[in-house]
Structure formats: structure tokens, C-alpha cells
Amino acid sequence: MTVAPSLQKYLDQTVTYELISHDPTMSSTRTAEACHVPGDCLAKGVVLRRDGGYLLAILSASRHIHLSDLRMQLGDEVALASEDEITKLFCDCERGAVPPVGECYGLDVIVDDSIEAQGEIYMEGGDHATLIRLGRGQFARLTAEAWHGRFTAHD
């Protein structure tokens, strides 16, 4: 598989980006290592259950989410979605390869401030062997409608 069709269509209509192929990896941390990209520059998506729906949190691969901080900022109960729920939401992506772009999947998005500070941002393309590189301005365009906050800590 290459870039997920829903994601590619959305990216093509919205931003300028570059594709980078890499050996298959099964985690964002391993992808960063394989591509020699700092974990702070690799955006990952975490799917959350919120108020009867779903929310995509975008954060750096080198960080982990603090659900309690997110609950305080949103004023709602949030919990991690199950793999089965994620597979249904991202039906054109490989299992476990959630791209950190929610708009093309009908999801609300919240972006951690730490990822926006990077000059270049990389993200998985919906498979385990394709990385997408964006400039900061292009990433800002992708997340213009998203909520923003600080809800992570370094691993």
C-alpha cells in the first residue's frame, strides 16, 4: 500500500508535500529511527473517544499523551479508542498506521503545541512504509481548523 487514498486526495487539494519511502516499521518511534528523523518532528495521530464521537489528537512521536490534561482543556471525558474502532474510522489505512490528519476522515482534531514548533514535520501516510514531509506552513494549513493545546510530555 502507498498513501491512503482519502489522505492523498485531501493532501493534493490542500498542501505541497514530499513522499519518502522507508523499510516497513510498526511504530512511529521506529519510523523516526529508520528515516533518521528526530522524534519531535514526526507527527502521530492518537484516536480518542469523546462525547459519543471521536477526536484525533496530533502529537510528536517522542511524546506521550496526558489524558487528564486533555480532559481539563476540553471539558469532556476522553479515552483511547480501540483498534477495531480505529480500523473502521481509517478504513483505507493499514491497521496501526493512523495518519495525523483528521479532516479527510470526518474527525475533529486537537494539535499539541510541541509539534507545531518544528520547522519540518513528517507523518505516516496510512501505511507502514511511506512518510510524508511538510514544511511548518503547510502543516499549519492542514491543521488550521483544529483545536490547539498542550497535553503531552516527553517519553
- In terms of structural class, how would the helical and strand content be classed? alpha/beta
CATH superfamily: YbaK/aminoacyl-tRNA synthetase-associated domain
Q: Using DSSP, what is the number of strands?
A: 10
Outline the low-pLDDT stretches: none
Number of domains: 1
* CATH architectural type: Alpha-Beta Complex
User: First CA to last CA: what distance?
Assistant: 30 Å
Order of helices and strands: HEHEEEHEHEHEEHEE
Task: Tell me the CATH topology.
Answer: YbaK protein
Q: Can you tell me about this structure?
A:
The chain is of the alpha/beta class. 28% of the residues lie in helices and 32% in strands. The protein has one domain: YbaK/aminoacyl-tRNA synthetase-associated domain (YbaK protein, Alpha-Beta Complex), CATH 3.90.960.10. It has helices at residues 5-14, 28-35, 67-74, 83-89, 113-116, 136-142; strands spanning 18-21, 42-50, 53-60, 63-65, 78-80, 108-112, 120-124, 130-135, 147-149, 152-154. A hairpin with a 2-residue loop joins strand 2 (42-50) and strand 3.
Task: Please sum up the structure shown.
The protein is an alpha/beta fold and 155 residues long.
What distinguishing features does this structure have?
single chain; 155 residues; alpha/beta; YbaK protein; eight-stranded mixed sheet; two-stranded antiparallel sheet; 28% helix
Topology of this protein?
Elements: H1 5-14, E1 18-21, H2 28-35, E2 42-50, E3 53-60, E4 63-65, H3 67-74, E5 78-80, H4 83-89, E6 108-112, H5 113-116, E7 120-124, E8 130-135, H6 136-142, E9 147-149, E10 152-154
Parallel strand pairs: 2-7, 3-6, 6-9
Antiparallel strand pairs: 1-8, 2-3, 2-5, 4-10, 7-8
